[in-house]
Amino acid sequence: MTINVGDGLPEGTLSEYIEVETEGCSLGPNTFQVSDLVKGKTIAIFGLPGAYTPTCSAQHVPGYVKLADQLKAKGVDEIWCISVNDAFVMGAWGRDQKATGTVRMMADGSATFAKALGLDMDLTARGMGVRMQRCSMLVVDGVVKQLNIEAPGKFEVSNAETLLKQLG
């Protein structure tokens, strides 16, 4: 079953590569409970099939980095990119995309969270295993307020521009 507008996010964990050690976050991969991260916050989340893939690298992540200030001006506290990759890959990709400090590059290494959302897709035949569908959502205090799921192979509704327009 796929998550819908009005649903609460499922329980789950995501990992993030932390570049600078801070209180409560050590250097390297850190694992977080999604329910703890979303409490009391407005979060723009976009999911995509994989780090370093063409559309994801050329359009999806750069769009959210470029429009981050505008999204935050409309009340977004954080922007997350979720992909079925490990935290090391997501951290390196975030550095390459100049997303560090702007977009949280969240790893769903075993596609557990993607499956819980009902947004997983099997790309095993293409040598990529199980991945996350390309999507975007606005989550307010853990509840999905906007949801944009792309048709297979498309990049039309999960971009930063669409989510920004939906914020009004």
What is the CATH class? Alpha Beta
Largest beta sheet, briefly?
7 strands, mixed
CATH superfamily: Glutaredoxin
- Secondary structural class: alpha+beta
The helix/strand order is EEHEHHEHEHEEEEH
> Count of DSSP E strands?
9
Number of helices: 6
State the helicity in percent bands.
25-40%
User: Quaternary arrangement of the chains shown?
Assistant: single chain
What's the overall average pLDDT, rounded?
A: 93
- The third-level CATH topology is Glutaredoxin
Strand content: 25-35%
Question: How would you describe this structure to a colleague?
Answer:
It is a single chain. This protein is an alpha+beta fold and 168 residues long. Helix content is 28%, strand content 29%. It is built from six helices and nine strands. The protein has a seven-stranded mixed sheet with strand order 2-1-5-4-3-8-9. A two-stranded antiparallel ribbon has the order 6-7. The chain is globular. The two termini are 29 Å apart. The active site is at 56 (cysteine sulfenic acid (-soh) intermediate). It catalyses: a hydroperoxide + 2 glutathione = an alcohol + glutathione disulfide + H2O. InterPro entries: PRX5-like, Redoxin, Thioredoxin-like_sf, Thioredoxin_domain.
